[in-house]
Design brief:
With 246 residues, the chain is an alpha/beta fold. Helices cover 37% and strands 15% of the residues. The chain contains seven helices and seven strands. Strands 3-2-1-4-5-6-7 form a seven-stranded parallel beta sheet, sandwiched between helices. The longest helix has 21 residues. The protein starts with 6 loop residues before the first strand and ends in a 7-residue tail after the last strand. The mean pLDDT is 92.
Length: 246
């Protein structure tokens, strides 16, 4: 099978880390089937390897179900070789505070968990047969915030990512029976449009002395789906410049 025949399903593909992941897979000759809340920019649609995009809000169960069905209609029985669960949210309260244990509506917690935790679970189930057929890999995008109290990420986001780390372990054990590997990538401070000037204060805590790039994350995600990592499953890789050491 040539690289051009391999298909990756990617959530949260329209910007930031997700967009970089799509670009990396296409640079390696993979076909990208993506979803995001928005339509893709025109320049992305011009790449023939970005074969299909479906606008969907994965925090809404009905929208997620439609995405899975529409994706399978497009696949028409073809295998999937990788599923990247990248979509996620880290909302603030109406007063722009961290969504914490003592503040913010519980309904917002449910919305965070629906996208950050339940969507990866549902997508893994939804594409399990196609991944088995392709002997593929799943990569869940977790976060450094799932492993320690982060000054800017709220408690809802942090605990949802911690739960996704645990889910990765359980998925690896169960999907191994299908010949499908499951790993996670935990980014630290990555320079995107969402990063505010406040994050500069965290750089002294990064041993490599600078923020990471979206390409740093995308490279690790791709390698986890490649033959180089064919005997690796149930692992979480920190892309943090060493920040997780403290």
């Amino acid at each position: 099978m040539t690289e051009g025949e391999k298909i990756v399903v990617l959530s949260g593909a329209s910007q930031g880390i997700g967009h970089a992941i799509a670009s990396r897979f296409m640079s390696e000759g993979w076909q990208v089937l993506s979803c995001a809340r928005q339509e893709m920019p025109a320049e992305c649609r011009r790449n023939p390897l970005w074969v299909h995009h479906i606008a969907a809000d994965l925090s809404e169960p009905a929208s997620l179900d439609r995405f899975v069905q529409d994706a399978h209609d497009w696949l028409d029985g073809r295998p999937v070789h990788a599923l990247i669960n990248n979509a996620g949210i880290s909302p603030k309260t109406p007063f722009e505070e961290r969504l914490g244990v003592l503040n913010g509506p519980i309904e917002e917690w449910r919305r965070v968990f629906e996208l950050n935790f339940f969507a990866p679970l549902k997508l893994a189930r939804g594409f399990a047969s196609a991944l088995h057929q392709g002997q593929g890999a799943i990569v869940n995008i977790t976060s450094i915030a799932g492993h320690y109290v982060h000054p800017f990420a709220g408690s809802a986001y942090s605990t949802s990512k911690a739960a996704l780390s645990g889910l990765t372990r359980e998925m690896a054990a169960e999907f191994g029976q299908l010949g499908v590997r499951v790993n996670a990538v935990a980014p630290g401070e990555i320079a995107t449009k969402m990063i505010s000037a406040d994050y500069e204060a965290l750089i002294p805590r990064i041993p490599l002395g600078h923020m990471g790039s979206v390409e740093d994350v995308a490279g690790v995600v791709f390698r986890l789906c490649s033959g180089d990592f064919a005997y690796v499953t149930g692992t979480e890789i920190f892309v943090t410049g060493g920040q997780h050491l403290y």
